[in-house]
Every structure is written in structure tokens, then in C-alpha cells.
Amino acid sequence: MSDAPPKIRLRGLRKAFGAKQVLDGVDLDVRAGSSMVILGGSGSGKSVTIKCILGLITPDAGTIEIDGRDVLAMSAREREAVLDRTGMLFQNGALFDSLPVWENVCFKLLAQKRLDRARARDKAAQALADVGLGPEVGDLSPAELSGGMQKRVALARAIASEPDIIFFDEPTTGLDPIMGAVIDGLIVDCVKRLGATAVTITHDMASARRIGDEAAMIHKGRIVWTGPASTLGDTGNAVVDQFARGEREGPIQMELRR
Ligand SMILES: Nc1ncnc2c1ncn2[C@@H]1O[C@H](COP(=O)(O)OP(=O)(O)OP(=O)(O)O)[C@@H](O)[C@H]1O
User: Fold this and answer.
1) pLDDT tens for each residue of 88-144
2) Is there a domain that residue 90 lies in?
3) Where is the ABC transporter domain (predicted)?
4) Residues with CB under 6 A from ligand 1
5) Do both 169 and 81 map to the same domain?
6) Which of 85, 108, 155, 195 is deepest in the core (most CB within 10 A)?
7) What is the ipTM, given to two decimal places?
8) Residue 193 shares a structural domain with residue 245
9) 113-127, 219-233, 244-258: which range is least confident on average?
10) Which of 44, 218, 222 to mutate to test the pocket of ligand 1 (most atoms within 8 A of CB)?
11) Average of pLDDT values for 209-226?
């Protein structure tokens, strides 16, 4: 087991936008089957890191390995095959109001013609059931749903293709604390059921502890700490502890948190 490569391995990842060096040598390992939470101030590069892994942003330097294979060196087709095995829950849900919920849930499977419409409907009903929603929700428009239901639908979409890596970008933002805990529970259950590897960006420490096995903190363009998510707030690392406790005073300066 210990010889297996990490599911995701980032080495020396660098990305600048104009004069701004956002990623300045990000190194990170995510073990297969584990749940990694990425923490960091606003604008610290958490989403950019995930977008690099997903191929939405090309890094200036560094390597991205999935299952030990360098994705940046792959052909477009090989890379697509790898990305087909990933799911993503976007920060705002990113549901299409023009499509009913069930088509949103199976959007990827329909777009890639992996399922015909009848089977996709069944698949959508199953994915909706997995997140605690009845099949009747499938016929609604996303605009008719509450924020918590939209997050559930977005989660159903992320899991419908049974990916082996799932990214969650601030899955509980905008939800009340109880709904946040419900969504966290669903994420943990779904990830476990799929046997997937999960990477979550969150600012919500309660959520980080619930979802994460491990946590990593990005600061000044690098990963400055990784460790058990259960220790957040009491890690002994002054940067991480200030962030996790939400303290004004500490090594993180206000200018970095514009
Ligand atoms: N496509 C882009 N073009 C130019 N600048 C960008 C682009 N994408 C991100 N940035 C910049 O990179 C920096 C990091 O952005 P990123 O979205 O990764 O932050 P984040 O850590 O996810 O923040 P938040 O917690 O606020 O979502 C920001 O300064 C942002 O403006």
C-alpha cells in the first residue's frame, strides 16, 4: 500500500497573473481514498490550484500527477479520459436554469452520450435519492429550489458519473449551520460510498473538521502546513492556528486578506 503513488501529487506548481505570483511552488500529496481540505485566505490561490488540476488553468511551471502519471505531459485525449473520472461541485452550484434538475444531474452523461435519456432519468433519480431528494425534484427547475436543495442537486451532479476524484469548492457557503452540517454529512457518505478521493476548499472550520481527514494550508503561494483536519485550531503552526481560530492578531497580515 505504502508504495502506491498518491492519487494527486503536485510539485512546484507556479502560476502568475500579470505581476501577481499566485502560486509560488505548491507541493501537495492527496492519498487515494482520503479527504483533503484546502484552507487559505481569500485570494490565496485555492481555486487556482484546483483549476490547474482540472485543466481549466495552465500552470507556468510544476507537475501535476494523478495516479503517478503527469497530466500536463498527456495528450488531450488521455487527459480527457482522466478528467472524465473527476466530479466537481462548484462554489455557486452552477446549475443551468434552462434545464430541469434531472438533466442538470446527468448533464455530463447526456453530453457524452454515455446514457440514453431514459436511463439518464433513472440515474438522476438514483443520484437524487443518494442526496435525500425524491424523484419529483427531477422535474423542477433549479430556480424553484432553495439554496440547500440546490447544493444537494449540485452534489448529485458531482457524484452521478461515479467519479474517483471529487472537488468541492466551498460546499457550505451561504447555508445555515444545520443545512451546512447536513451537506457535510452527505458529502462524507457519498465520497465513502464511491470510494472516491475528495478535495474540498472551505472557509468553514466546522465543515473542514467534519469533511476532512487531512488539511493543507496555502499561504503566500505555498502549502505551509499539512496535517490531520481534526487538529485545526490547535496545530502548533501559528499561521494555521490564527486562520482556523479567526484571530485578528497573528502572522497573517491584513493586507493579504483584502
Ligand atoms: N483567470 C484569472 N485571471 C487573472 N487573475 C486571476 C484569475 N483567476 C484567479 N486570479 C487571481 O488569482 C488570485 C487567487 O484566486 P483564487 O480564486 O484561487 O483565490 P481563492 O483562494 O480561491 O479565494 P476565495 O477564498 O476568495 O475564493 C486572486 O488574486 C485572483 O484575482
Assistant:
1) 887 766 888 888 999 999 888 778 777 788 888 888 899 899 888 888 888 999 989
2) no
3) 8-245
4) 17, 22, 40, 42-48
5) yes
6) 155
7) 0.97
8) yes
9) 244-258
10) 44
11) 94
